[in-house]
Specification:
The structure is a single chain. By secondary structure, the chain is an alpha/beta fold. 29% of the residues lie in helices and 15% in strands. It has 14 helices and 15 strands. It has a 7-stranded parallel beta sheet with strand order 6-9-5-10-11-12-13, sandwiched between helices. It has a 4-stranded antiparallel beta sheet with strand order 2-3-1-4, sandwiched between helices. Helix 13 crosses helix 14.
Length: 483
Amino acid sequence: MKDLKSTWMLPFYKITKASYLLLSSLFSFCGHAVAQENDTATLYYYWVTFTDKADSPYSIDDPAAFLSPRAIERREKQGIPITEQDIPVNPAYLAAIRNSGIQILHRSKWFNAATVICSKKEEKILEKLPFVKEAQYVGRVLGTKSGPPKFKMDSLLSKPVEGKPYGHGQAQVELLKGERLHQLGYRGKGIYVGVLDGGFTGVDVSPFFDSLRQSERLLFPRDFVDADDFPYESSSHGTKVLSTMAANVPEVFVGTAPLATYVVIKTEDTRSEQRIEECNWVAGLEYADSLGLDIVNSSLGYTTFDDRTMDYEYSDLNGKVSVASQAADIAFEKGMIVVTSAGNEGSSKWKYIGIPADSEKAFSIGATNINGTKAGFSSFGPSADGRVKPDVAAPGSWVTVADAVSFRISTGSGTSFASPIACGLVACLWEAFPDMNNQEILDAIRQSSHQYEQPDYELGYGIPDFEKAYQLLQAKKELRQRP
């Protein structure tokens, strides 16, 4: 995957390989491999914020220098201005950091920041640079990553379920009336979905994703943990998440958006739990925005860490403390929809949702059993400032997912799967009404949900009915078209 084929360009839009490489330079990695090889050195991650974007070579008058045509079109379509927030970090500041011997992992235009790798001694040098506002410790560099996985992708091991087009995943689609959208011809075509997760083992070879690869709808992969373009390792979690949307083997397993286009982005380091992963998440979300993606699914959540001094309190879950939660709000303001898992702490001492599910603009998904009752593990709301969370709920207990190392289906439980099951249908709904903005799409989904009039802190507005959401938007469309 490190040699991008020249034929890899986003259909219907002018994101060519050259355009992608230009954007990649704005998310480039520098020196992380060196840090991994030198396991004897004690190196740390810092989130560094800068004082300004003065004297930048970039300008809002030339957005093509830092945004893809599709990202620019999304903004224009929804009437969203390009602002200084969209301008990348000043390259001169980054060059000065490198010249100080400090390594840069990635950067954030939205927060005017960069994540760097350095020693405690180098941190003192960093803090003295005149354009550095603050350097915040966010974790320890762990060392060499794990080796490549082994696969057994030789034959179909799960039998088809005759007469059921979704195969073993039939019930999880039908609970949300997703099959009705599909019957109307909406299966996610033309919608671009980013998936932020901890690894996508087997996605590049699994027959469950053959149609994605063959039709060139698996694009521009990125790994913000290991600093490369190969996220197909480390964890099968992202594989299972993706399968609930993108799997496409009729009568065995078909996901909720089998014709959408996907970008898989690894942001979670499964070896630990550190705040650096929130920085990775921000970088991944900005990458999705710059490519012009429409929707992002994130089945990740943060509350406690290996270093307990990093832990969040429930009072922090107001959408304004974590950079990840703030980034989810910003992504929405850029015209995207961010779908997140609510969390699996419903039966634990913590109990509540996590980060970034507390974001005001994130569409946070709780989990139900396949019969529509709340799954015991699904986290409760509200947010710390009293907002309804989760927003809605979807099947997440003992649902069908694709096995990551063999050609067969498996089962899994967690809001990690409720989120993408819903996300895929969000994509289908937006395909049906491409002229509606992100707020209108989410409002219709909430209004279609079974307890919209009386939301609670268990299932939020309830279980969406995507057929009803379609009808609501169709009525709105017809009203607009009246002379």
